[in-house]
Write a structure and sequence with these properties.
It is a single chain. By secondary structure, the protein is mainly beta. Helices cover about 10% and strands about 40% of the residues. It has a single domain, classed as Beta Barrel (Barwin-like endoglucanases), CATH 2.40.40. It contains two helices and six strands; from the N terminus they run E-E-H-E-E-E-E-H. Strands 1-5-2-4-3-6 form a six-stranded mixed barrel. The longest helix is centred in the last third of the chain and has 11 residues.
Amino acid sequence: MIKFLVWTMVVGTIYHADPRQTNADYLTTASLKTINKDAPGSHRWIAVSRDLEKLGFVFGAKVCVENAGKMNGIWYVEDRMNRRWTRRIDFLVSKNIKGGKWNNVKIRLETDTKHQKRHITDIR
């Protein structure tokens, strides 16, 4: 199996499972995963801006986050941001976390060739 290492720099922010920040179906992600309303941060899920999908940051992708303080570590792409955002990720967190923005966040992704080919087909 051939593996590629993909990384890029983004802005990282937080979001809550709240209809004011998402949509009326605020407990369902764009990938159709159900958010645990009592502990949304326990999932370690992120939303990505749509431009990052073209780099392989697609639903289910495992992402290593660096330079984001307490948000550093492994996260999984399970949501998609509004079209107005580019070069950005949102960390799904519990409501007790009130604010957070990090510039120059490094996100890394390892994919195999099978995953890459499927993604390229999906974006055409």
